[in-house]
Please model this.
Amino acid sequence: MTEKPYWEIVVLTSKDRQQQEIYKNQIAAKKLRNAILSSIEFEVYADPEEFPIGTGGSSIHCLNRLFEKYGENIFSKRILVVHAGGFSKRLPNHSIFGKIFSPVSVHGHNIRDLLDLKIEFTQRFCPFMVNGGVFFAASDDVETFTLEGLKVKDFRNFEGVVALAHPSSLEIGKNHGVYVLSLPTPGSSLAWFDDDCTEVLQKPSVSAMRSHGCTFTNNGAECVYSDSCFWITPSVAHKLLELERHFDIYKKETCIYGSMSTSYLWVSTGLHQGS
Model:
């Protein structure tokens, strides 16, 4: 029986070195309890402390650190990066140990915290990451999605970005990234569609969403596709590393979902609809 693909490396980001040590200790404790797969390599990378760099700079920093340790091998591995840095100001009870280690209870599964849940949910995309890649996710949410209609063969020669796109109300769209597609926005009956993303609007107004042609009707309601987690293929990871080599990314705060999402527009983007 062929072993199903799984994450080979899981990376957590941290705000500083103190938080990094706390995360490392919690991962070590999980290993002692045999609570996580021994086949997964875990890394925790602290953001440089001179300037706030946001999730954009942190993502490139992670890729750089991975390249330093694993070399060219990282481009053939399936890697999960969870942005877990921050002090959880809105949930101060999680400010010490981090939201990613928040306890959860899932009946009938060996899932004890949000990290377990995040790994379990996202690993379902591993079979489609045929040539490897890096999957980026936040630490404080749970994405829902369907894999109906996805075929592994569709991704064997795919190069670019694959993103979850969630049918959302305009009110939700106002506070998130919203995809602008090159073709008329398909309705929510499609579980999978491949299209070029021409722009990612960040926290747009209702008028902006309508004028850019982002809206569609879902069960009688006006909706848009809002952003979420995504993965990049090895070729895109290469190009992001080139950014680090040619620009000083550590002196300005950037967001992987906001500031940097427009950088993905030179690649074909597959939008996978979440429910």
